[in-house]
Design brief:
By secondary structure, the chain is mainly alpha-helical. It is about 85% helix and about 0% strand. It is built from five helices and no strands. It is extended, with a radius of gyration of 25 Å. The mean pLDDT is about 85.
Length: about 200
């Protein structure tokens, strides 16, 4: 699993590097078009398509690695938690037979093995998605921010403040409502599983 995680992180770095190269090649062939340099334009287009030909298998491999890592992590975590539940901690045997099994009751737990499996799947997919999105977006912001900074320092600084302000505003406006909706969704799913 650690090898898959290392491969995934390396593929995220390679993907970001390829995106930066594509950006430079786009600039190159637009510059060649505006200067009416046909040979330079076709060389830039050829390089652009070569980068795309390399990027497609890298992206497919990254997606495969992400899915494979998710499966491996999910299998390990489910097995580990079920062993704790049934064997080591013997939590299964400590549940009382005549317990109140109504939703929200601490005594009664309905289908704990199914809940473990469902929660593990939800946790692993969300955690991996968070890692990929956070690392990939961070690398792209840093890379393309550096490119923008080299073009115009004032524009780069303005966009940093603009992005921070708009993110804060959107979080303030919608954050509590989205958290409440997520809580209600989880409650409805738990009630549906119980039914």
């Amino acid at each position: 699993a650690w090898l898959l995680l290392a491969m995934l992180i390396a593929q995220i770095f390679i993907t970001t590097w390829l995106l930066v190269k594509l950006n430079f090649q786009q600039g190159e062939f637009f510059t060649a078009l505006s200067n009416k340099e046909e040979a330079r334009f076709w060389a830039a287009v050829g390089t652009y398509f070569f980068i795309i030909a390399v990027a497609v298998p890298v992206l497919a491999c990254k997606e495969y690695t992400l899915q494979r890592l998710g499966v491996v992590w999910r299998e390990w975590m489910t097995d580990h938690l079920l062993k704790l539940y049934f064997c080591k901690r013997r939590a299964y045997f400590r549940l009382s037979v005549g317990a109140d099994v109504s939703p929200g009751s601490p005594e009664g737990i309905d289908n704990p093995d199914q809940r473990i499996v469902a929660d593990v799947e939800s946790f692993t997919s969300a955690a991996l998605n968070f890692i990929v999105v956070f690392l990939g977006a961070g690398l792209r912001v840093f890379s393309f921010g550096a490119i923008l900074y080299s073009i115009s320092m004032h524009l780069a600084v303005f966009l940093i403040f603009y992005a921070a302000f708009m993110t804060g505003t959107a979080t303030w406006l919608f954050g509590k409502r989205l958290a409440a909706l997520n809580f209600a969704k989880r409650k409805c799913e738990a009630d549906l599983r119980f039914a």
